[in-house]
Amino acid sequence: MPTLATDIDEIAQRAADAAPVWAATTPRTRAAAMVAAADALVGAQAELVAIAQEETGLSEARLVGELKRTAVQLRLFADIVVEGSYLDVRIDEADAAFALGTRPDLRRYNIPVGPVLNFSASNFPFAFSVAGGDTASALAAGCPVIVKAHSGHPRLSERTAEIVAAALESNGAPTGIVQVISGQQAGVDMLKDPRISAASFTGSTHVGRMLADIAAARPAPIPFYGELGSVNPAFITRAAVAEDASSLVDGFVASISGSAGQLCTKPGFLFVPVGHNLDSRLVDSAEPIAEHRLLNPGIAEGYRERRDVILGTAGVTPVVEGSLRIDDDGQGWATPTIVRVSASDLLLHRERLIDEAFGPLSVLVEYDDEESLVPLADELFEGNLTGTIHAGSEEDSAPLRSLIGWITRHAGRAVFGGWPTGVAVTLAQQHGGPWPATTNDSSTSVGGAAISRFLRPVSYQDVPQRLLPEPLRDDNPWGVPQERNPAGRSTSWGEAYRTAS
Amino acid sequence: MPTLATDIDEIAQRAADAAPVWAATTPRTRAAAMVAAADALVGAQAELVAIAQEETGLSEARLVGELKRTAVQLRLFADIVVEGSYLDVRIDEADAAFALGTRPDLRRYNIPVGPVLNFSASNFPFAFSVAGGDTASALAAGCPVIVKAHSGHPRLSERTAEIVAAALESNGAPTGIVQVISGQQAGVDMLKDPRISAASFTGSTHVGRMLADIAAARPAPIPFYGELGSVNPAFITRAAVAEDASSLVDGFVASISGSAGQLCTKPGFLFVPVGHNLDSRLVDSAEPIAEHRLLNPGIAEGYRERRDVILGTAGVTPVVEGSLRIDDDGQGWATPTIVRVSASDLLLHRERLIDEAFGPLSVLVEYDDEESLVPLADELFEGNLTGTIHAGSEEDSAPLRSLIGWITRHAGRAVFGGWPTGVAVTLAQQHGGPWPATTNDSSTSVGGAAISRFLRPVSYQDVPQRLLPEPLRDDNPWGVPQERNPAGRSTSWGEAYRTAS
Q: Do residues B395 and B401 touch, judged by C-beta distance below 8 A?
């Protein structure tokens, strides 16, 4: 894969040249090209999954499912492109009686920002990598994409790019629609290139912050959408434990051990009432789980360090000790580790304990009463991707409502009676939360709303019909939703809400 | 006004305490409070306009109009709050047949980000100051506001805050809903305060960049929406000159001289065809215009410097020399200055000439043929708020289409057959463009879409109806638009766009 400065320049120029061509495609052409890319990925499943297994250690079942998800994402965005509400078309009719003097004809819609740079993730070699959600949403917005491949799966990245670019280019997309670069320096150089208009990232808080700072410090700053770390606190009420302890335990263990816990939505802290009596169930549920390889030696070493810190902290007791072994070649193999700690010990040792453990480890936090949960959470946590509650099926109480409120103020998704892993790819999904969960909590990196990251509005004032873009024309040839604001309305603005005074 | 560190802490805490209370108001309560604020401003018109005239030197007519605009903005946003589409409610029904395995019930909407800090502008003492568009849109979003008053109109800022806060607080808003601080250091300290969730700014590129960098460098970065400088290039085709030279000249002169040219959308460069023969018309139109005071001594001095640089540049010829005198107390008084320069001299001396002249000055640029306009514009300009075209009434040509395309790539609003000053406050307005026009070109600071700057999405997964917020409930008590995504659809995503292969 290209890494030299001259390559960077050529790749950026190809993306810049592709941008106006791709932006000018009709919705159906753009959608058809994206569906062709989805089909091509599925068609190459055997080859791609085999490479991915070797490079990441993830299971075949997981990778087949992830490839399917990646194809479904592309197809979802094909529908979104044609449906057209992402364009947010607003038409203000000219209005001679406008409250502030004659109003011109104004028409506003969203246009693509230009070439997007996407830093891909280690833990989703398909769904957050070359053809993943960031790429699909940028392509749908009308932007060419340059992917900085993750060093954990270089061959897969290159092969995926070949397949996707060929499918797109033979279905109406310009040369340079999807390109791949590799190496940290190449990524930084590209992020600084003036031809890049926006960037997305999935990875650690440390690297994400470094890149966000680079994007903000450019002569012309660009938006940087980083999905960083999250510990995803989960809370179980006493009523929930009483109702169905065994489903709770099985669901929790599945959520922390799937993909060896290497998921950004893994619940890292589970608040349980003192006297929960779940220890033996946890052991029974976790012990049969086989060793799972960790993604790469760097992650194995990071997990070993975090796990040692946690196990070595005063007040921390192993419930399920679990295992971690690291081969001579640095690859790590792990089974789930579950520890418990009292709320007061967690408060005392929060500097050591509150941090993401990227692997199959979670911390049970024993609390005394439900009124203490919000004050505890306020003390312990910054922003998160998710927060989870398990309550009794008919439970309703002030502390419960207060806890839901706390989650929505500090996370992007509130999960009730389930687990945060397994993020649905759909229109109402929100994958993104307050710092440090993301650099920018007004957006999502999963689901239909992800397209908004790569759009910019522009208004046309009194432009004749013959010179307007299709979505803004009165004859609306693409059939997109148009929100019309008729003349004459401005004088009644607010009148209905005028108080008696 | 409060300026000390202890005040900053108290003010930030009051805003933080007000945030959940204001966020929890019903749409009608929030709207009624905003309309009461609008009414209170209009009721105090005589007092407020008198203070504003003295502090800014703007004319009574202009200030009366601006106060009306400020009230209309508050009323527009009251309607937007109740209408509810800004909440972007999306409901995914639970779907056992979802393409990627069972989908939970997911419901997403926008919530307020929290306390907003608004740096107000010198040139709009009402409409971009204490009760201006940034404040109105933040209040509508459900956020308390702290305004850093502009030093150019301190008494007006304080009095406006008293009136608006009293009206809001006696109509259901919490204490601390709108507060004012003053002084650059207080503004910087507040911008760094962890209780501030977003900031907006209208002012110079230099100060805007400094503040944007501070916002990005915080331990927890926050979005910073800065509206900075713009030179707003305008282009007149040969056909337009032939059709109606005199209206063109009168419109142009009015646009550059209104409010003494101290508007961010003033057309700073007007491209005219060689042989335009407009000089004597420009003189006739501009010479009767009376001297207008500039806003403050700092702006007067800045205008003197820019004007001297422009008049002293090789190749620049005055068409209307205009005047500038500065009193002993530093106040400046000006009449319009219009100069011309050839396209080639502008290219040669662009370092001196391409910059905002904040005052009643504009540069005519004489071009040879319309094919040269896009290449010229590419060489000369970065991002702008607006770009303007005057063409013949039936004109259509490749260069004309190419020029519209150039404007939409480099500006937020394309104006056709009019002038960019006089920004309509309405739903389809876009006031914001690529850097350095704004720090963040995905948003607007004028019009209904301005509300989106102060919102953040959150999803609720499988939360029981009784615990959901009103906008997400099936019984929809607020009657807001809900976009429902029914079960069973995912399997057809993209199918309609599958190519023959």
A: no
Residues of A in contact with B497 (CB under 8 A): 28, 31-32, 34-35, 78-79, 82
- Please tell me if residue A213 touches chain B, with a CB cutoff of 8 Å: yes
Q: Which of B225, B228, B226, B227 is nearest to B113 (CA)?
A: B225
Is residue B1 scored above 90 in pLDDT? Answer: no
Distance (Å, rounded) from C-alpha B416 to C-alpha B404? 9
A456 forms beta bridges with A111
Phi, psi of A478 (to 5 degrees): -90, -5
Residues 6+ apart with CB under 8 A from B89: B107, B108, B109, B471, B472, B480, B481, B482, B483
Is A143 one of the catalytic residues?
no
Q: What is the 3-state secondary structure (H, E, C) of A100-149?
A: CECECCEEEEEEECCCEEEECCCCCCCCCCCCCHHHHHHHHHCCCEEEEC
Task: Flag whether residue B399 sits within 8 Å of chain A, measured between CB atoms.
Answer: no
Amino acid code (one letter) for A16: A
pTM above 0.90, yes or no: yes
Tell me the pLDDT tens digit for each residue of A222-264: 999 999 989 999 999 999 999 999 999 999 999 999 999 999 9
The distance of Cα A477 from the centroid of its chain, to the nearest Å, equals 34
In chain A, residues with a C-beta closer than 8 Å to the C-beta of B463 are 404, 414, 416
HSE on the CB side for B497, CA within 13 Å? 28
Residue A305, SS3? helix
Q: How far apart are CA B447 and CA B425, in angstroms?
A: 5
What is each CA distance from B29 to A178, A499, B24, B90, B419, in whole angstroms? 50, 10, 10, 24, 38
Torsion angle of the four alpha carbons A354, A358, A364, A370, in this order, in degrees rounded to the nearest 10? 60
Question: In sequence order, what are the beta bridge partners of A234?
Answer: A270, A388
**Which residues does chain A have within 8 Å of residue B28's beta carbon, measured at their own beta carbons?**
497
Q: How far apart are CA A242 and CA B224, in angstroms?
A: 47
Q: What confidence tier does B501 reach under pLDDT thresholds 50, 70, 90?
A: very low
Q: Which of A75, A106, A113 sits opposite B428 (nearest CB)?
A: A106
> In what order do the strands lie in the sheet containing B332-335?
B292-293, B332-335, B323-326
Helix (H) or strand (E) segment spanning residue B55: helix B45-56
CA A229 to CA A315: how far, in whole Å?
25
Element of type H or E holding B67? helix B60-83
Q: Residue B268 carries which DSSP code?
A: -
Q: What is the ipTM of this complex?
A: 0.96
- One of A227, A356, A366, A370 is an active-site residue; which one? A227
In angstroms, the separation between the Cα of residue A79 and the nearest Cα of chain B is 5
Indicate if A162 belongs to the active site: no
Residue B156: CB atoms within 10 Å: 26
| H-helix or E-strand spanning residue A318 | strand A317-320
Q: B424-470 pLDDT, tens per residue?
A: 999 999 999 999 999 999 999 999 999 999 999 999 999 999 999 99
Q: Do A100 and B425 touch (CB under 8 A)?
A: yes
pLDDT digits (tens, 9 = 90+) for A269-292: 999 999 999 999 999 999 999 999
H or E element in which residue B181 lies: strand B178-181
Residue B192 has pLDDT above 80, yes or no: yes
Contact A35 B494 (CB under 8 A): yes
Q: Which two three-digit tokens encode residue B202?
A: 């209208």
Which residues lie closer than 8 Å to A63 by C-beta, 6 or more apart? A49, A52, A53, A56, A125, A126
A179: distance to nearest CA of chain B, Å? Answer: 23
Segments in chain A below pLDDT 50: 3, 501
Query: In angstroms, rounded to a whole number, what is the distance separating the alpha carbons of residues A18 and A175?
Result: 6
Q: Which domains does chain B have, with CATH numbers?
A: 5-228+444-455 (3.40.605.10), 234-416 (3.40.309.10)
